[in-house]
Amino acid sequence: MEPASFTRSPSLTRFPYRRGLSTLRLARVNSFSIPLLRQKPLPLRNSASLILPPRSIRLRAVEDHHHDHHHDDEQNHHHHHHHQHGCCSVELKAESKPQKALFGFAKAIGWVRLANFLREHLHLCCSSAVMFLAAAACPYLVPKPYIKSLQNAFMIVGFPLVGVSASLDALMDIAGGKVNIHVLMALAAFASVFMGNALEGGLLLAMFNLAHIAEEFFTSRSMVDVKELKESNPDSALLIEMKNGNVPNISDLSYKSVPVHSVEVGSYILVGTGEIVPVDCEVYQGSATITIEHLTGEVKPLEAKAGDRVPGGARNLDGRMIVKATKAWNDSTLNKIVQLTEEAHSNKPKLQRWLDEFGENYSKVVVVLSLAIAFLGPFLFKWPFLSTAACRGSVYRALGLMVAASPCALAVAPLAYATAISSCARKGILLKGAQVLDALASCHTVAFDKTGTLTTGGLTCKAIEPIYGHQGRNNSSVTSCCVPTCEKEALAVAAAMEKGTTHPIGRAVVNHSVGKDLPSVFVESFEYFPGRGLTATVNGVKAVAEESRLQQASLGSIEFITSLFKSEDESKQIKDAVNASLYGKDFVHAALSVDQKVTLIHLEDQPRPGVSGVIAELKSWARLRVMMLTGDHDSSAWRVANTVGITEVYCNLKPEDKLNHIKNFAREAGGGLIMVGEGINDAPALAAATVGIVLAQRASATAIAVADILLLRDNITGVPFCVAKSRQTTSLVKQNVALALTSIFLAALPSVLGFVPLWLTVLLHEGGTLLVCLNSVRGLNDPSWSWKQDISHLISKLSSQDPTSSNSSNSLSSAEPSH
């Protein structure tokens, strides 16, 4: 593995932290002097975990034991270590000339190596803390003649364990012209030593380090660790060797192992029991039970049989399958999850951007105020310059302010965004950045597409009805089995035109054609009109008493087909025939025109299970305005709307109409708007909405590209969860900022007034930081709309005799939609 190279960042502590079987090095980073996200994200092949929030970066685990050492020139020195025990040096990259000079000197005398060694061993930091605490306890436990000698012994051993790395890091920061919490803490500690309070300075550093170890623990717990996802993706795939251009039977196979990156779309792969599906694919032969829990959080195993689509990363629990790759590895579900999750942490929310701009100036102001207290205190308040037995000196008070006012707690306030992203990811919800949560919390309206979003999208063809231009036919002759010639020809043409489509109507037509004895049809040319239909030149259908010839075919909405007829009288006759249809207007209709012969295709769609509960939750608990935007006709749209509980419906909309509606609603409401869809015709509306949400399993590539939130599970129960999570996160961030400012004030004021010693100031300061971390970790819990909802859920559970009925449709943590 390649070493993780990164820009030198201010640091007091870098300690190993074990998670599972991997040893991760924690690098202290101050967001105020070098904003974390100015650095480029680690490449996928190098990063074992996500970028942490501003206070730290978690570097990848290092396992290989080898040493690469080379020089590009006299100044660029590359020194790479890999060890099984995680004991590898942290390369300090000097940027300015003073930093380069200091780094060269420190490296020459072994300072860098020693600092790396000490900061990478957690037990040494803990040992130093124990020694300083023992030294502080000596006056109470040890006979008086031995107190001084024991204290000196403990400090002589303990101080270098934390002071070596602290001094190097502080000097590197100062040489680079940076002032941050690590510089402030080091200055306070070493100033205490020079003033004769070595024990207090040592306690300061030890407690600072221990507090940050705890902080790193809570921070790492709040992050999505994509390392397991990366490791679950196999390095190779079993590529089946074709025989005379055909796929052999599953019982008579020959295959070879190839790198997963080289698998091409259309390749056939063997997936055995216990193996991981390498790329997104479709089952070609065989069947198996698979699990996608690590991808979407869906715990229930799924049955995969011929024709089913399986995402890359799914685990085969039993059975053998031959699958056909539908996407290359770079575009597969697993790789997209990893990329989107990492990018989500790289897209900073508004608060984080403000902290990046504000932080370094704030640290400089703290230094100026501390200097003012140190030098003006003796004149204004009659404090002694140095501490005496009767009164703490102005320098001591200034050091207390320097420590107490450090913006550590403010720096970790945005950690709540990271926990929210992690919580959503564990529910199979991917956010394209923390800023999405801010936008989502500001929304007052949600608009749903109908087909494939509110409904299953699994349209079924109920009947095919010739309605215009067919000789010897009348409107009373309707068939659902496609035996007569006209229906067979119409279905053959429609299936050929829709082959390979992702549109629900197209899929329904193609599925209905399977297993039927239809004439061969070839599409010569093709043109698509988003939201309306498509036209094609087809070859292969034999008209009555005629040979095969090229024919013009069009498939789409009634309005689209009638617009192709030049005569208004013909258009009116077609519309009258549609209105006179025996099936009425309760079904979804698509019209096919082949050489001026029009056939009506009747399709049926059903609302998704649990949708009515989702709509009720968004209305009653989220207080959102809920509407439907659809391209379907009034009757079909209102049939679904009445079933799921939507009272505001806009029908017969083209993609540009949906776009205009979204813009108008956002302008009129004065707040944000959420658009939930999945098709290519929803893409303009998804892009224009404040927040676009798509069902990733069935969404088009265009819709996924413009959306802000991807629901990996094939249902919309994640929509209310996202809204509640955004509001919870906004509340947590506000609480974090309040906690941070309060902790700074409570630590700074007593310190300046001389009421508390320096080590207690550090304890108060770091205690506030830990409180912010702990409060942020609450974001991993499922959100609730209000305490009233919690009470209502509790009452329903207590009053219910059936324990299984306690799963309310309002439960945000429910993994399955209610039926």
Automatic annotation (TrEMBL):
It is found in: Membrane. SUPFAM superfamilies: Calcium ATPase, transduction domain A, Calcium ATPase, transmembrane domain M, HAD-like. This is Heavy metal ATPase transporter 1. Belongs to the cation transport ATPase (P-type) (TC 3.A.3) family. Type IB subfamily. Residues 65-76 have a biased composition (Basic and acidic residues). The lineage of its organism: Eukaryota, Viridiplantae, Streptophyta, Embryophyta, Tracheophyta. Keywords: ATP-binding, Magnesium, Membrane, Metal-binding, Nucleotide-binding, Translocase, Transmembrane, Transmembrane helix. Residues 799-819 have a biased composition (Low complexity). The chain crosses the membrane at residues 122-142, 154-172, 179-199, 362-383, 395-417. It is a multi-pass membrane protein. The gene is HMA1. One of its GO terms (molecular function) is ATP hydrolysis activity. It comes from Camelina sativa. GO terms for cellular component: membrane. Residues 249-342 form the P-type ATPase A domain.
